Amino acid sequence: MRDRFPDQLDLSGPLWSRQTVATLVERLFDIPLSPAAAGRYLRAWGVTTREPVDRACPLCAESVVRWQVETYPTISRTAQKQRAEIYWAGKSRLHGTTPATEVISAVSTRGWIRFMVTTDPGLPRDFLSRLRPPTGRPAHVVVDASWSYREWPRRAPEGVTLHALPCCERGR
Question: Which residues form the Winged helix-turn helix domain (predicted)?
Answer without folding.
Answer: 14-57
